[in-house]
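User: Quick sanity check before I run a bigger batch. Here is a single chain. Can you write out its predicted 3D structure?
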Amino acid sequence: MERKDFNSKDNKTTELTTFYLGDALCGIDIRKIQEINKLIDMTRVPQAPDYVLGVLNLRGEIVTIIDLGRKLGLSPAQITSESRNIIINHRGENVGLLVDRIGDVVEANEKKVEPAPANLEDIQGRFFEGVLKDEKVLVGILNLDEALKSEE
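Assistant: Done. Predicted structure follows.
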């Protein structure tokens, strides 16, 4: 998967679905998201990494649920009524990213996206493609390839 160049001269706009991991506001390109849903019953996976919460059957498809906060080095998710799974298809596998709550959809004009800092809200900068800054928001744009990379 290619890394998006938000600093190109084409001045394109991308819509980001935003979500919270603790106090950190992050975003994913809306075109990468299949759906957002509430938690449903998961089956634990023996000997899986601690960030894998389990799998669930979503209309006949098996979805691996990942605690995104824990995967990025933050504290484990506290499952509440606002918690949601962001369902994506990553490298042919359905993955649910458990987040604390969903934010708004925002437009990311490439002119307002800056390179990712070394650290953003206690999350390492390597997990971000860039940061959207404007007068209302500061959104870390999640790099799904890096965030979902397996530890070897």
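The radius of gyration is 15 Å.

User: Great, the batch can go ahead then.
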